[in-house]
Design brief:
The chain is mainly α. The chain is built from 9 helices and 4 strands. Strand 1 (41-45), helix 1 and strand 2 form a beta-alpha-beta unit. The protein starts with 40 loop residues before the first strand and ends in a 57-residue tail after the last helix.
Length: 341
């Protein structure tokens, strides 16, 4: 098996995340040429990737499974990046391609930049529409409302957007991206700066959530989705693999209870595949982990222990309802789930 280095193209002491290359928006009115239509688009994700995990959670919470089909890549990449080796014959059954790069090149012939997930692909043309992970979930929440399930929550309520945006910016800069700034740093100074900023943000969040169930308002919002996808990976990969080791998530009573609360909420934990997460980080990032040895821990059964966060009040889905069962063909395999002893 050939794997790629996980710090793509970084030769500087401080890791720089590349901007999304394809940023077209799929909207209710189709003003950019891509109207929100049931059955037209395919969401391509890796269950290992926190940025892609956001779109999986939001798609499920909003009940868009029938409107937007799902393609799941192998958690291990080769020199051509994300591949569909989990599917029969190594090809996505809808798009007919072996590598996500083919959809990028269909959109821009000769494209030789980064290939990232999540990506939304136009099925009729086979062209990638967007890989703008910061915008995809917001548009699913606000531009796809005609196709939301009955009882879908409002994940980006207009009266709270300024506060949500402020919280999300802090979380993105210091935590979502901060774990990568620490893990891919190539100097002690860059690593220490990233790690200090990360845990300063961590402490702010822990204090904020000490007496409130969710980050903004009384219900789950986009801000909670974005924080969760980093927290759920923290002890499994970021604490050890990325050296973000001031403390574990499980050692912070507030954030650990908050994360378990969300994990046990339909739409969150049922999208998590710890097997994919661990194998991707430890086997693909060969610059960080040259041996590619995947650790046995941590104990995943603790994710299912009582959290007592409901005592703080709040309504997870606001005036809405929980999503239904996970479609059978989208269930996480047993080896990737948290299970009780």
């Amino acid at each position: 098996m050939t794997t790629t280095v996980g710090n793509p193209g970084s030769t500087t002491t401080e890791y720089k995340r590349s901007a999304s290359h394809f940023t077209d928006r799929i909207t209710a009115d189709g003003r950019e040429g891509w109207p929100a239509e049931a059955g037209r688009y395919r969401l391509v994700v890796s269950r290992a990737c926190p940025w892609a995990n956001r779109s999986l959670i939001v798609r499920r919470l909003l009940g868009l499974e029938d409107a937007i089909s799902l393609a799941v890549t192998d958690p291990l990449q080769d020199e051509r990046s994300w591949r569909f080796t989990l599917d029969p014959d190594g090809r996505d059954p809808v798009l007919g391609i072996a590598f996500l790069a083919e959809a990028y090149q269909a959109r821009e012939p000769g494209y030789d930049g980064g290939i990232s997930v999540p990506a939304i692909v136009d099925v009729p043309s086979g062209k990638v529409v967007t890989n703008d992970y910061q915008r995809i979930t917001l548009d699913l929440a606000t531009e796809w409302t005609a196709l939301h399930r009955e009882g879908a929550p409002d994940l980006y309520p207009e009266p709270l957007r300024d506060e949500i945006d402020t919280v999300m910016e802090d979380v993105y800069r210091n935590l979502n991206n901060g774990v990568y700034l620490a893990g891919f740093a190539k100097s002690q100074r860059a690593y220490e700066r990233a790690c200090r900023n990360l845990f300063a943000c961590w402490d702010r969040l822990s204090e904020r959530l000490a007496d409130r169930r969710y980050l903004v308002g009384e219900s789950i919002t986009e801000a909670d989705v974005r924080l969760f996808t980093t927290l759920v990976r923290f002890d499994a990969v970021y604490h050890g693999h990325f050296k973000c080791n001031r403390n574990k998530l499980s050692e912070d009573p507030v954030l650990w209870a908050y994360a378990r609360d969300l994990f046990q909420t339909p739409g969150f934990g049922d999208t998590i595949d710890f097997d994919h997460i661990k194998r991707h980080y430890y086997q693909v990032h060969t610059d960080v982990n040259p041996t590619q040895i995947v650790p046995l821990g941590p104990d995943l059964s603790a994710w299912l222990t009582p959290h007592h966060r409901a005592e703080l009040g709040g309504r997870p889905f606001g005036d809405g309802t929980p999503p239904g069962p996970v479609p059978v063909d989208e269930e996480v395999p047993p080896q990737g789930r948290a299970v009780r002893d």
